[in-house]
Write a structure and sequence with these properties.
This protein is about 35% helix and about 20% strand. It has helices at about 1-25, 90-95, 150-170, 185-200, 220-225, 230-235, 240-250, 260-275, 290-295, 320, 350-360, 360-365, 370-375, 395-405, 420-430, 470-475, 475-485, and strands at about 45-55, 60-65, 75-80, 100-105, 115, 125-130, 140, 150, 175-180, 210-215, 335, 385-390, 405-415, 435-445, 445-455, 460-465. The strands form three sheets. Strands 1, 2, 3, 6, 7, 9, 10, 13, 14, 15 and 16 form an eleven-stranded mixed β-sheet that branches. A three-stranded mixed β-sheet has the order 8-12-11. It has a two-stranded antiparallel sheet with strand order 4-5. Strand 15 and strand 16 form a beta hairpin. Helix 7 packs antiparallel against helix 8 (about 260-275).
Length: about 500
């Protein structure tokens, strides 16, 4: 009996130490104790601050972490990345699936009012919102040469961030970890996933419990993405059958890198037909003046600068996109042209609420971010970085990751004309995996919410009915539903 008692005591002590370690491991200096604009108790703990990914250059990436409201000890940890390249992940935090819904304070610069978001993704997972690369959002470097960057450097820095972050929060090392994002994060997510897997296989410490990734309306491949818009516009009834057939014949189905006068003329005709639509959701209005903005106070979704350009050309888009991108603009030495070279701003949207909150001195202080006087104002999408798309097509990344057993969820709002679902559906099919869950509707509350098809090796494609480019912004309830189901390993 005595021996049995002695054996039990150390085990009990170990369990107590582990419990204490879990509660006290997170850096208390990063704890967000108040959220300006929000009254009441937070449903879970929030942490925020900087992780230095290059000590010599002083390159620092900013994160905001929201613990799961359900069971942070067991629930998945999910990294969220917005696109651009050059757009802040506070876009997702403020407008999509963050813990709050933001209400205007009444004027452009007044502090917004925050309310709890019933469809926050932190209902079922711990969320990390990361501004990446340096120069984007609240992230910065003391060496401006770091603002010349690209896909591969961004992925390497984000991997460094994750290793250091898990070192700071070791209590989450055993939790399943996923990487997620939308838009140009269709490049960020698979390239970072590749770095994480390479690190795991190479013995990088700490060991990340990586399980898979998800991409929404994401850039993937120049040819597939570039050829998706014209068929999409035709299928949505924006372009007549005769005009579509004329363009298809003149361009021989090659819309993204077309040559010849007949093809250019046909594309210009299509351009003229759809040029005044909101490219991020063809059902939503697109305001062009302060007058219309006052009538439509809600934010319309943002864009990103590159739709999967190679080191040679941008994919073809239309004049409406031409506010931000020319039709076949050259990419100078592989560099994505800066936003303001082609546009005075992001068309069809407003980021006033997010800007008012993130440029407020009390907010910066509360979330442990550098003040405006130090790193400048927050921008939804910046033109301060020179970005090279140097990773090429993402199809090989998806094949490599899924064949190694990592789950992948590719979802598309079916009314987005920026990265149309037609391209995403085509490239997922092109991988060549066998179908294990044939095309069918998926439901929420007894209603069809979209369509899905499942493939071998854990690859799933799904549409969200009636959603635009930023799915959780348009369909928050449906987004939380598919997100929760996929994380749990359930069928949609």
């Amino acid at each position: 009996m005595a021996a049995s008692g002695n054996g039990a005591a150390p085990a009990l002590v170990l369990l107590l130490l582990l419990a204490v370690g879990r509660c006290g491991a997170a850096p208390q200096a990063a704890l967000v104790t108040r959220v300006p604009g929000f009254d009441g108790a937070l449903p879970s703990k929030h942490y925020a601050g900087y992780v230095t990914v290059d000590e010599q250059h002083g390159r620092r990436l900013f994160y905001y972490m929201v613990e799961s409201e359900r069971d942070p000890a067991k629930d998945p940890v999910v990294l969220w990345l917005n696109g651009g390249p050059g757009c802040s992940s506070f876009d997702g935090f403020v407008y999509e699936h963050g813990p709050f819904n933001f209400e205007s304070g009444g004027s452009v610069k007044s502090l917004p009012k925050l309310h709890l978001n019933p469809y926050s993704w932190s209902k079922v997972s711990t969320m990390i919102y990361l501004d990446s690369p340096a120069g984007v959002g609240l992230s910065y470097s003391k060496n401006v040469s770091d603002y010349n960057t690209g896909d591969l450097k961004t992925a390497a820095d984000s991997h460094t961030f994750l290793l250091k972050w898990f070192g700071m929060y070791p209590e989450f090392l055993s939790n399943p970890f996923y990487i997620s994002g939308e838009s140009y994060a269709g490049v960020y997510v698979p390239t970072l996933s590749h770095e994480v897997v390479k690190g795991i296989q190479g013995g990088a410490k700490p060991t990340i419990n990586f399980k898979g990734y998800m991409v929404g309306n994401g850039v993937c491949d120049t040819v597939f993405d570039g050829n998706a818009l014209v068929p999409f516009a035709h299928g949505m009834g924006l372009v007549s059958d005769d005009i579509y057939q004329e363009a298809n014949m003149a361009c021989q189905g090659n819309f993204w890198n077309a040559t010849g006068n007949k093809c250019n003329t046909a594309l210009s005709k299509i351009d003229g037909l759809i040029g005044e639509l909101n490219i991020y959701d063809i059902l939503e209005p697109c305001y062009h003046s302060k007058t219309i903005k006052e009538v439509i106070p809600s934010r319309l979704p943002k864009s990103f600068k590159d739709l999967g350009a190679t080191n040679k050309t941008f994919p073809v888009r239309t004049r409406m996109l031409g506010r931000a991108w020319p039709l076949r603009a050259p990419v100078r030495d592989g560099r994505v042209p800066s936003w303001l070279e082609y546009a005075s701003g992001v068309p069809c949207m407003s980021d006033e609420v997010a800007t008012a909150w993130l440029d407020n001195d009390s907010v910066r202080s509360a979330i442990h971010a550098e003040p405006v006087s130090s790193i400048g104002p927050w921008l939804l999408c910046t033109d301060a970085i020179n970005f090279n798309h140097d990773a090429g097509s993402m199809i090989s990344y998806h094949k490599n990751l899924t064949r190694q057993g990592y789950r992948a969820f590719i979802f598309s709002g079916d009314h987005d004309m920026c990265v149309p679902f037609t391209g995403s559906e085509a490239w997922t099919k092109s991988i060549g995996y066998g179908v294990v869950d044939s095309w069918r509707p998926w439901f929420l509350n007894g209603q069809v919410s979209g369509y899905t098809q499942g493939y071998e090796h854990g690859l799933t494609f799904a549409t969200i009915k009636g959603a635009g480019h930023t799915v959780p912004e348009y369909k928050p309830q449906e987004a939380l539903a598919f997100y929760s189901r996929w994380l749990a390993g359930s069928k949609l």
